[in-house]
Amino acid sequence: METLKKRLNNPVAVVSANLIIGALVVGILRAEYKLSLTLMAAVVAAILLMDRFDAVNCLFGAYIANRIPAIISAAAMCVVVPVLVGDNNYIAHIATMAVIYAIACLGLNFQMGSTDMTNFAPAAFMGLGAYSVAVCTVKLSLSPWAGLLTGIIASALFGLVIGLPTLKTKGYYLSLVTMAMQIAFTQLVYNLRVLGGANGIPGVPKYSIFGFSLYKRYTIFGVRFAPQFPYLLLCICLLALLTYVSMRIYFSRCGLSLNVIAQDPIAANCLGINVSRQKLFAFVIGGIYCGIAGSLFVGLDSYAGPDNYNFNRSLMLICMVILGGMDNSIGIISGAFLLTIISEKLRDFADFQQFVYGTILIVMLIVRPNGLIPKRTRDYCGISKRALTLTDIE
Fold this sequence. Notes:
- Helix content is about 70%, strand content about 5%.
- It has 18 helices and six strands.
- Strand 4 and strand 5 form a beta hairpin.
- It is globular.
- The protein starts with a helix and ends with a helix.
- About 40% of the residues are buried.
C-alpha cells in the first residue's frame, strides 16, 4: 500500500489520471451505444477493483497533495473534452444534459448524502428555476439572466417552505412529505393557465453574454461546432464553480454538522448544533443548486413543461446520487454522467426507462449502498499541508 501511495503521489500520475478520464469521457460519448455501454461497464468494474485495493483513496490523496497540477490539468480537460465532442449536435446535447443533471445532484446531495434526508422533490426545484426563466422572458420580456436570478430566489424560498414543516419529521415521514410536494407541484403547473397548463411555455429565449449568443453554430479553425457548444462551456464553468462550493462546505464546520445530524440528531443537539437551522440550510442550498440546474435546462430546450419536472425526473436524480456515491462530489458527478449516458444511449428502449432506474436503485442499495465512489474521511492535514502533531491528538 505504501508503495502504491508513493507511485501515485506525484504530479505526473495526477495529470495522467486526468488525461485517462478525459479520454474515457470522449470515448463513451462518441461511441456507438453498444461500445459505449461496454466502456461504461469496464469503467465501473475498474473503479470497484481499484477500491478493493484502496487505490481510489490513494488517488484522492495524490490529488490533494498535488492540487495545483490537478486543477490545471482538470481545467484543460474541461476545455479539450467539449472541443472533441462539440462538433456533433446529439453528443453535445447529451454532454450538456449530463452537466446540468450533475449540478442538480450536487444540490440533492446536501439533503440525501450529508444530512440523510431523502428528498423526492428535486425536480420540483428544477421546475421552479425553469418556469422562473420562462415567465421572466416570455411573459415579462426580461433577460434570461434575470430569470436565473429569480429562479435562485424562488428555489431558496421553496426550500424554506418544504424545510419548515419537515423539521419535526424524519425517515419515511419526511420522504412522504417531499413526495407530496413533488406531486402537488406537478398538478399545480398542469392546471395554471398562466404557466401554459399541460402545454407548458415554449419559445423561451436562449442565454447570451454581451450580445454573444450561447446557442449558435460557430466555426473555429475550420471546425463547425454544434449550436450547444458555447452553452456546454458555460454549464461546465458553473459546474466547476458549484463543485468547489460543495467541497468547501463539505470540509467546513457546517459540513461536519450535517454529517453529525445524519448520524444522530439527538447527539448533534447535545453537542450544541442547531439541528433545525442546519436542516433548513440543507434544503435551501440544495434547492438553489436544483433551481440553477432547472434554469439552465430550460435554456437548452427553450421549453418549460410539467412533464420535464415530474416525479420520474426526481427518481432519476435520486438514482444518480445513489449510483455515484452519496456525500462525495466526484462520485455524484460520475453517477450523473453515467446514468445520463445510459438513458440517452438506450433511447430506443424508452418504455423501459423506469424499469432501468428501479433496477439500478435496487442493485446499488443491496450490493453497494455507498455508491461507486463512497465518501472519504476528511483529510484536513493533507489540505492544509501540515503533519498531525501530538497536540492535535490531545
